[in-house]
Amino acid sequence: MTPIGPYDDAPAECLDYDPRFPDVAARVDALIRGALPQVRVEHVGSTAVPGCAGKGVIDLLLVYPAGDLDAARAALTTLGFQHQTTGNPFPEDRPMRTGSLVHEGRRYRIHVHVIGEGAAEVRKLLRFRDHLRMDPALLSAYVAEKRAIIAAGVISTGDYSNAKGGFIRGAIGGTDR
To answer: Please, what are the domains in the chain?
Structure first.
């Protein structure tokens, strides 16, 4: 039996922050680094920012050294992560894997973004997370933007991600996914 369970896609919604998010991320980080000690795992996205409402999906970056993409994909499969089948699928040279983990009786959905060390996307995602953590006005504006997107009836996860992309690019600059 693998530690990571199946991923169940659900309509986008804007849920309140759950203080257990960091604990779930730390458990998954330990699983990944137990299988791949050479990688770095970073908790990003709304669940990495205390007080940030969002979909409730734990987003992690698995940052691998040059030449280790195949090993990263294989290790994630062994842990039970699945290929992304919903939203805007990422290509296999920059994959995202999905899964879930039961923590304190609740199932948490997980996205693992697999990105090579030194990629500009890693810096941008970390910068956005850190800006949200440090700037209450930016955090408030981001949550308001997400709530407005949902209120407008955008509940497809792919459409929701696309809709908030402009806000994120405006906050950090650039056009990387």
So the answer is: 21-168 (3.30.460.10)
